[in-house]
Known about the structure:
Blueprint: H1 2-17, H2 33-40, E1 54-55, E2 61-62, E3 64-75, E4 84-96, E5 113-115, H3 117-120, E6 128-130, E7 133-138, E8 146-150, E9 155-167, E10 179-188, E11 196-200, E12 206-208, E13 217-231, E14 243-256, H4 259-276, H5 287-309, H6 320-346, E15 351-354, H7 359-367, E16 371-372, H8 374-377, H9 382-387, H10 389-394, H11 396-401, H12 420-436, H13 438-446, E17 449-451, H14 453-485
Parallel strand pairs: 3-11, 3-12
Antiparallel strand pairs: 1-2, 3-4, 4-9, 5-8, 6-10, 7-9, 8-9, 10-14, 13-14, 15-16, 15-17
Amino acid sequence: MRKIVLLVFVLYTSAQASPFDCPSLGDGDSLSQTQLLERLTHSCRYDRLERPITYTEKGSRLPVDVYVRWYIYFMQNLEAHDLQFKIHALLQFRFLDPRLIFRKVSPKRSQPILGEANLRDILWMPHIFLANERDSSIMGTNEKDVLTSVSLDGTVIISSRITATLYCWMSLQKFPFDEQHCSTYLESWMYNTSELILHWEQKRPITFNPDVHLTEYVLKQIWSNESTINADLNDLRHGAFAGNYSSLSFTVQLTREVGFYIMDYFLPSMLIVGASWVSFWLQADQAAPRLMLGTSTMLTFITLASAQGKTLPKVSYIKVSEVWFLGCTLFIFGSLLEFAFVNTIWRRTSNVDVKKLKSKYILRSTLSPRLYETSTFRQHSADSVSMTASSVSERPNTAANYRNYLTKPNMQTGGGVATEETRKFYEFDIGLMEEGGDENVHENRNSWTTLTPQEISQWIDAKARVMFPIAFLIFNVLFWTFVYTF
């Protein structure tokens, strides 16, 4: 009994393997689409693991030409902190498979055979992947969002709606006035250029839905490219197979909209810098309000700058936005330093000699003051006159009317004893009188002016009210010129 069963099994197996069991393609017009496809893709005629093969006139094998088209439904704003963007698109492949030609076996059919994922699964498919993807998937269900079409001449079209998250290596040197070029790369996985070549469709290979709108960017330009990628045994990008692999790419040029950043960062920072200048209108001895104003504007600005920086990746180069925030910080810090300087001047107890009422002389005398004391500069004491009695007796009228504005007597001496410094300055002035008389003396004396510390502090504040806005205006001219020129 066992021998009979074994014999029947052998005969059945032989019958299945017999070439005479291959279904006929005759009278294809009477077959349904499913029946016709089952016969076209029967294992005796079709091997889905083997690519379509065509030959030249000389009999050499030709690679499969796969044509690609993108239709983008939706594009999400670039996520700068993750260097990525997301798209929803229709990805379409078109190629010719001579094994699926049914024009002769079913001449009455004029429409292609349509199917979904189940039809795609029984056909040979080019293995193509997104080289810069972070994640991708078919949208909806496999049955719903995959369309497969087989034409009479054997042309196969596979259309899939996909969602993909792709890397975009952004350049943020000019943020937020930057332009980004984000590319999408398609490459053959297991077939090198001797087996498969990718091409863009001739007409409109990349199309965007007219309703696509980005809130932060403006789509300026799109361009595509066909290239070849060389892989060696050290590159696992193509499954550790060495060779040249066909690649397609398209790049979109995106320009960032700066309206949000102008209204939320640049204008507020200008106002904060301007608010720090209010301290110049407060008196120098009002330390509490000036200090509170300076520190509050500084802390507010730092908070504003840090809020903007949280949305960006930690890159090693300097961005334009950082240059702006650094410049504004220096202006606010400068107003604090100006307050500390004028407050120090205000608290001085001695007046300052100034050669002329000009900025350079006032600053020079303020930084290295020549102290002036009115009690000794307005008249000479009788003790000082006695030191030079002989000289004075010769010119009584001159000595009686002379006031030495350059000397500083020793306040600790008594009984008519003067310091060496006093004698030197006094003799210097007497020499001037001998040379030119009273006119030279009064000319030398009138060229110097005395300012109180309070007057100098007010003068510095008055200059700061003008110099700080002018300097900030120059900084803005240079900054915005660089932004829109380079």
